[in-house]
Structure formats: structure tokens, C-alpha cells
Amino acid sequence: MTNERDDGEQKPSELRKMKDMHVDWSDVASVRAAIALEEAEGELPQSAVSTMRAKKKAHVQTLMSLEPSERRLLFDRATWELWGTESVNYQALQLTWKWNEQGRHADSLRLFDDLITVPHLEEDSTYVNALYTVQNAIHKLGVDADRARRYLRYCLPNARFNPTAFHNALCVFAELGDRAGALHALRGAARYGHDLAKIAADPDLTSLLKEAPFAEIMACPPEEHPTLLLRTRLAELAASPRVVHHSPRRVAARALALAAVSWRASLPGQRALILSDQYEKTQKEVAAMRLWLRERGIEEELDEREAALFAEPLQSSMTPECIDRSWSIEAAIMLGWALDRVRLPQLQAKIRDMDVEKTLLKTFGLGTPAADALLETASLRSEEEIHRRYREQLTLHWRMEERRVHPDRAVDLAKMIEDLPGLELGAELAGGDLAISNKPLTSASTAKADRVASLAHERYRALAWLIAPAGTRMSAIDFAL
Fold it and tell me: Which terminus of the chain has fewer Cβ atoms in its 10 Å neighbourhood, N or C?
């Protein structure tokens, strides 16, 4: 939108005034006025996300009177880091607990329909309770397969942070008669340390757990689950055809989409742009980039959250969403490797923020005629080479996940490579384990290990998408392993 401010002295004070506006949660019009300000200026008053109370009937009536899109906007802006139990997200979660106890599953589902769409929910019990609610709703209200699968799609990628969600997902898959999904959920529960005795005691799962693949997991000692599941996945890959389902042009389009997302996420925040008189100019650049993507058919490669990043007003560059999306450059570079456009950097070599624009121009020609040439002439490395790289990135991603779940547990990757024919790792080892700054992973600093984990996850995500069925969205790639 057009920025109508013309007095540089007044801009910061105007922003502060908007931020300090009082929102009365007893009045739906007051809440909607705050939402309108956010949509127009990108600044939501603090009281809009921090003063709603689940114990106040009028507040609850206002929350439920809002349109789903309005609730989602509020949930999206109410971070746990800033507001904790005072956030509208947590208050809404309290309502769902209360309503589930009262058997009001339909009302709980209305809130969960919106809550689960919000990325970076620090209160990860949201996903556990959402799946619990949809499972109960199947019993009480009848099977709504579309809703159940939607909940699974949003909740499963976050289940690795609270593995009880895998148990609930297993129950939902069982209700849907989806054996493959149920096996995936059981593997996740075992991999991430859920107490399998609780699953064994679940009467809804008794017959399912007697089937061969489920029984094998249930009989495996807990300490062997991580390695068993990796070996199983690698064996499945070895037995499957070496196929890449996406066309070279689509891979190039997705790489350019990721490059554009990384560029957008790396822009300075709203305040910095206003104070430097670059706000209008940058807004026009973002609009021009979106038009450039649309004219080339690349915009359709953006998922819902990525597209929203271009549609929303410029905000802080330090929001969880922007920080997360800035890592998209690593997935883009992996696709650039698959397109034979770039050598893959070392695992520890993160592209620095100052080099993002340079990298995007050099590798993909983002926003220039070179990108059009890439779309027209794109070609991929051999399917065998891509699958070999995928097995490598799968193993590295698995190792970083194992470090997150069991930070002090060393893994003998060298022995694993010896035992698994065809597995290669393009990474340095120390003491048999993955090396970070010439030290075994268990001895590395938390900051360095976290950085390598983010790199490994993004590169795995790109290759997992590359070998997935043609209609798969990258946002649907499950990190659980």
C-alpha cells in the first residue's frame, strides 16, 4: 500500500501511538479496529494480543465472533516469548481444555482450526491437544476425514517437539484406516522418546499393534529405536526406484521462489526503513518482485505462509517467521546444486546475510533475464546422483535430530557408513562422529551445533521435496525421522 507519511519527525511517534492503542476485548468493534490498523500499517496494538481473558464471558464472545482470518491474524502475532500465559493464543488454548472437558468438541475445533495454522507456536501442547480433540470429535461427531487430515498435515511437522502428538496422530490415522500414516506416527513416537507402554495400553490400537511392522517397533529396545528407524528408511530407499518426479522447470521455479522468499525475509524491518526513508521504495521493490514471480508462473510455487510474507506490510526482520524464512536460501542452494548451477557449500558454511543478495543474483539471476533463461534451459543432475545426495542429507539430518533429542549421546557414524553399503557422507568426522570445528558433535558449542542443524534441515527439506511425488508441497515435508 502507499505510505502517506510526509514528515520524518512524526513517523516514529505515530508508530508508538498505534502500538499503545488500548483494545477493549469486551467490544468486538474495538478488536476489529486494532486488526484494521495492523492490516494497514503492520503494527498491532499490544493490548490486542495480551488482554483477552478466557475467564471473561464477554471476551470469549468477542473471540468467537471474529472471522477465522481475524483470529488467525491475532494468533499469529501473539508470541509466547513476549506474552506467555497472557497471550491470546494461550487463553484460547485454555478455552479448548475447558470445552473438551465439557464435551464441547465442536467449539474447541473452531479455535483449533485457526490455532494450528500459526507457525512457531511455542506452546507445542497445542498440537497434542488439537489431535486429541479431532480424535474425540470422530467418536462424538462422526468422521470428518478432510478435517482430520488437515489437522495431521499441520500438527505432525511439529510433533517431534512433543512426541505425545505422535500417539494422538497414530489414533487418528487408525480411525481413518490409514496404515501407512499410522506406521509413520508410531515410528515418530518411538524415535522421539514417547513411552510406548502408553501406546501398548491404548485399547483403540490393540489389533493394529499386532501387525508385523508395528509389532517389530514395539518389540525393539528403546535405545535402539533411532538407529533402527534410520536403517529402515535407508533400506526402503535402496529398494525403491531412483526417480525424480518434478520437471527441471518446476525445480528451477521452486528454487527461484525460495530465493525470493529468502530475499524478502532478509529485508530490514519497518521502523528501520521508515527512519532511513526507504519504506516506500522497499514496498515498491517487494510489489515488483511479487509481480515478477506472478508473470513467470513462479508465484504458484509459494506456499500459504510464503505468499503471505509478500502480501503483508513490512514488519520487523527479527520475527520468528522472517528468521525461519531467511534460511530458505539454503534449500534454494540445494536445488541450485540439483540443477547443476552451483557447488554445494560445506555443511558448516552458512551464507552470511550480507552475501544473500549476491548469492541469489549469481546463482539464480533472481529478478533478471538470467532467471528466464534458467527456467527455459533448466536441467537436472542424474537421478542416481540426486538420490545418493538425498541419502547423505537424510543421514546428516537424522544425526542432528538425534543430537536434539539426546544431546550428550555420541553416534559412531564411521561404523554406520561401514555397515550400510552405498552410504556416503560429504562431511568431516571426529572420533567417528560428525565434526563441527574439528570437534565431535557432542563437544561442539550449542550455537554452532544449532546453526549446523538448521543447515542440515533445510538441505534435507529441499531434497526430500525433490524426490517426493509431483504434487507435493515443500511445506508438507515432515522433518520427523
Answer: N
The three three-digit cell numbers of residue 84, written as one number:
506467555
* CA gap 278, 213 in Å, rounded: 59
The residue with cell 528466464 is 372
SS3 helix, strand, coil % of the chain, rounded to 5? Answer: 65, 0, 30
Query: What pLDDT, on a 0 to 100 scale, did the predictor assign at position 9?
Result: 36
Burial of 410 (0-12, 13-18, 19+ CB in 10 A): middle
**Amino acid identity, residue 75?**
F
Q: What is the CATH number of domain 11-231?
A: 1.25.40.10
DSSP string computed for 463-481: HHHHTS-TT--GGG-----
CA atoms of 437 and 401, how far apart (whole Å): 19
**pLDDT of residue 387 exceeding 70:** yes
Report d(CA 172, CA 216) in Å as an integer.
21
pTM of the entire predicted model: 0.78
Indicate the domain borders of the chain. 11-231, 248-377, 383-476
- What stretch of H or E contains 164? helix 164-176
H or E element, residue 405: helix 383-405
The contacts of residue 274 (CB under 8 Å, 6+ apart) are 3, 5, 11, 12, 15
Strands (E), 71-160: none
Helix H or strand E encompassing 317: none
Do 384 and 416 touch, CB atoms closer than 8 A?
Answer: no
Paired strand residues for 435? 440
Residues shown for the chain = 481
pLDDT digits (tens, 9 = 90+) for 339-378: 998 887 776 655 444 455 566 767 888 888 999 999 999 9
Measured CA to CA, the distance from residue 177 to residue 350 in angstroms comes to 43
* Partners of residue 440 on adjacent β-strands: 435
Q: Identify the helix (H) or strand (E) that includes residue 434.
A: strand 433-436
Three cell numbers at 345? 557449500
How does 55-72 read in b/e, with b if 16+ C-beta sit within 10 Å?
eeeebbebbeebeeebbb
pLDDT band (50, 70, 90) for residue 252: very high
Radius of gyration of the CA atoms of the chain, in A: 24
Grid cell of 359 as nine digits = 548469492
Report the distance separating Cα 434 and Cα 429, nearest Å: 5
Distance CA 155, CA 443 (A): 32
- Would you tell me how many other CB atoms lie within 10 Å of the CB of residue 178? 17
User: 217-248 pLDDT, tens per residue?
Assistant: 999 998 888 888 888 888 888 888 888 889 99
Strand 439-440 relative to strand 433-436: parallel, antiparallel, unpaired?
A: antiparallel
Alpha helices by DSSP H, listed for 177-221, are 179-191, 196-200, 212-219
Question: Scanning the structure block, which residue is given the C-alpha cell 515478477?
Answer: 292
